[in-house]
Amino acid sequence: MVSQTTPSATTSQQKAGIPPILIIGVLFFIFGFVTWLNSVLIPYLKMACELNNLESYLVAGAFYISYFVMAIPSGALLKYTGFKKGMALGLLVMAVGALVFIPAANTRVYSLFLLGLFIQGTGLALLQTASNPYITVLGPAESAARRISIMGICNKVAGAIAPLVLGAITLKGADELKAKLLTMTATQRAEALSELSSRVIMPYVIMIVVLLILTVWVYRSPLPEIDTEHEDEALLAANSNKRSVFQFPHLLLGVLALFLYVGVEVMAGDTIISYGVSQGISLATARFFSTITLSCMIVGYLVGIVCIPRYFTQDKALCFSAILGVVFALLAVFTQGMASVLFISLLGLANSLMWPALWPLALNGLGRFTKIGSSLLIMGIAGGAILPLIYGALADAYDTRSAYLIMVPAYLFIGYYAAFGYKIGKRTTGLYKA
Q1: In angstroms, rounded to a whole number, what is the distance separating the alpha carbons of residues 150 and 378?
Q2: What positions does the domain Major facilitator superfamily (MFS) profile occupy (predicted)?
């Protein structure tokens, strides 16, 4: 296994008495809050900036593509800064991204909103490149999914709260405004949309303040460093002939599985409000659907905490989740109205244990390649940029319901990885422990 902590770090932690898992839990809460604001920003900016489906899903595109662009630089930066300073820097970059929202809202320029989202995603890429492997190796490998599930609850509780908070501010009276816009003159329409656009300023000013406070807190915290550059004797012997992270096929397949997983998770959470509206449901009601999806994910995380590894292993959890994903996606496509929307929400349950299971399965046995392996997995988060855009294009070309069929092959590949893919290249090493 990867070494856990340096002696000096452990001593510092004991003196301060603050469990590292608590600090990382706060960071995962921030991940969730900022990330799942997108589910409200998509219908909000679609109205404020007068966009079609494909254009509106550039919100997810700009946010998640930053992970692909910045993951490798983030991994390189972490080698210089270490985990703790890297996390603090990530929070600071997120605050800069939130700052861009102020001129974007004042001018109602969509490209500025997208720039702010990209910068926030850049900060999150750095933050997640540090925190995900941190929580993975902060204890036994066989219970890593359980620890990540605890972090997932922090993430998804924040994700469930975020759309309620931002939706109550930005989408207040949106149904009435939508109807009035049809009868307004060009001047009146511009004024009404400018007022709508300005609603986002105060929430993002508050976000800037909170992120700056957290930056200072994490920088000054007793969070211990974890040494991922050295390996124990078993891993050193097994990896003695490895010169590149690309010599670990189970990791590369894991990156693709995570790419597809994030894509379907973002589709389930970020498209559901707009999808509900397309099914004839008012925005006043539809704005709660993302919270339902995130609540389903919380239920799944609780199951993971209780059951992994006591009742079933990480790979079995991933396999069962993939099967559920196929079933719920097909049911969503072949039903209509509220029933179809609820099946999309239930995908939150199917998706919940995928992230916590994929990380330890993909990182297992990497040793000194853990940080660069983590960077590749973070690049996989770009699935949240690509799949929703494909969905948006299909929704414009066909309809919003049948476009969800693209989820099915994604879940099938994740199921393949859970059953076979995570073993490839590792069958004779003896390193994997389910």
Answers
A1: 19
A2: 20-427
Q: Hey, what are 180's tokens?
A: 């009035």
pLDDT in tens, 150-198: 887 888 889 889 999 999 998 888 889 888 888 888 899 999 999 999 9
Residue-level pLDDT at 398: 93
Arch. (CATH architecture) of 20-223+245-423: Up-down Bundle (1.20)
Q: How far apart are CA 415 and CA 321, in angstroms?
A: 8
Tell me how crowded residue 20 is: count the other CB atoms within 10 A of its CB: 20
Q: What is the pTM of this model?
A: 0.81
Q: Determine the length of the chain.
A: 434
Where residue 430 falls among pLDDT bands split at 50, 70, 90?
A: very low
3-state secondary structure of 307: helix
- pLDDT interval class at 14 (50, 70, 90): very low
Asked if residues 363 and 133 have their Cβ atoms less than 8 Å apart, the reply is yes
How far is the CA of 265 from the CAs of 55, 318, 351, 353, 387, in angstroms? 19, 14, 6, 11, 10
Find where tokens 């590792």 sit: 426
**How far is the C-alpha of 387 from the C-alpha of 238, rounded, in Å?**
37
Q: Give, as one character, the DSSP assignment of residue 223.
A: P
CB neighbours of 14 closer than 8 A, spacing ≥ 6? none
- Amino acid letter, residue 376: L
Strand partners, 231: 2
The residue ranking higher by pLDDT, 384 or 24, is 384
Instruction: Give bridge partners of residue 2 from the DSSP assignment.
Output: 231
Question: Which residue, 253, 294, 18, 277, is CA-closest to 164?
Answer: 294
Is a pLDDT exceeding 90 seen at residue 254?
yes
Q: Tokens 């853990």, residue?
A: 370
